Amino acid sequence: GLGRLISILFFGVISDKFGRRAVILMAVIMYLLFFFGIPACPNLTLAYGLAVCVGIANSALDTGGYPALMECFPKASGSAVILVKAMVSFGQMFYPMLVSYMLLNNIWYGYGLIIPGILFVLITLMLLKSKFPSQLVDASVANELPQMNSKPLVWLEGVSSVLFGVAAFSTFYVIVVWMPKYAMAFAGMSEAEALKTISYYSMGSLVCVFIFAALLKKMVRPIWANVFNSALATITAAIIYLYPSPLVCNAGAFVIGFSAAGGILQLGVSVMSEFFPKSKAKVTSIYMMMGGLANFVIPLITGYLSNIGL
């Protein structure tokens, strides 16, 4: 987390100035240091240093990867970035299975780090041969894209987009951590039943990814998708609060997963980049940094509210 926060603005500027390939390759090098370094790490101090490296790698990959995707598919940038969410969900589902299999079969845990390291080596070879598009959209393509009626303002559209990112990150934390506790306390669910709400939440997010990946390609603008999803998540949260029951909690978790975790964060990046197309990496870094701050602040706030009985 520290490595990510201290580096993300820096990489946003570097990505816009020197190009996406350079920043993504920096990320890959940092990831390789982590994945191959941790299994051979002799002490905790060096492990902390490698953890900072992987945080820096995360920042570099975000500020290089998201803009590169949007530039590769300028007519369907929303669909492109929302598929990142699908891959993240796949990794979150598959990797714990891999680790569990190794633990149950007494396989050296280091393979859980070496396997991703090997994948990054293959990715590096692919990147070295790949051609990256220009950071500026071709004029013929730009004419086919929706045009702004007026120039977006930093204090209005910019601040609104950043606050949207903060809300998206906050929702992830609140649902994953507090939804099961809420279901047990107010809906009378057992711990095992309450934990299933997170499974429904994850299912909703995956369903949303594939539906909106198709819709965003031709039918729906990212900004309207975010308006719809935000309204749906807010209404659902209100229903869960007013009418807690096992059915409402399970169905509500699915709907909030669909509306607030199915790529809404990635679409926020896409929308902000539409507002400020000449600084895609820089706005991505600001958006992600504020989300990181939310991940730090929201646990403190919710923990305090819980302690005082709210």
TrEMBL record:
Compartments, record wording: Endomembrane system
Main location: membrane
One CC-aspect GO term: membrane
GO molecular function: transmembrane transporter activity
Membrane topology classification: Multi-pass membrane protein
Transmembrane regions: 21-40, 76-95, 107-128, 153-178, 198-216, 223-244, 250-272, 284-305
Transmembrane helix found in the keyword field: yes
One Pfam family in the UniProt entry: MFS_1
The UniProt record lists the keyword Ribosomal protein: no
Protein name per UniProt: MFS transporter
